[in-house]
Design goal:
- This protein is mostly helical.
- The protein has one domain.
């Protein structure tokens, strides 16, 4: 296709993975942190209501 071998070289694959992880954290990090904080607060509230009702 591009005049290269069929397989990608190992350093290129590692570089692509690093770029993917870094950009993924930059894009999805803050919304995911918010989601997990809300989830933990909801679970804590549910545990408190369970403990107080029993």
């Amino acid at each position: 296709m591009f005049g290269r071998s069929r397989f990608l070289s190992f350093p290129m694959v590692i570089g692509a993975v690093v770029i993917g992880v870094v950009s993924g954290k930059a894009i999805f990090g803050p919304p995911l942190d918010e989601y997990w904080k809300k989830k933990q607060q909801e679970e804590a509230a549910a545990k408190e209501t369970d403990a107080s009702s029993s």
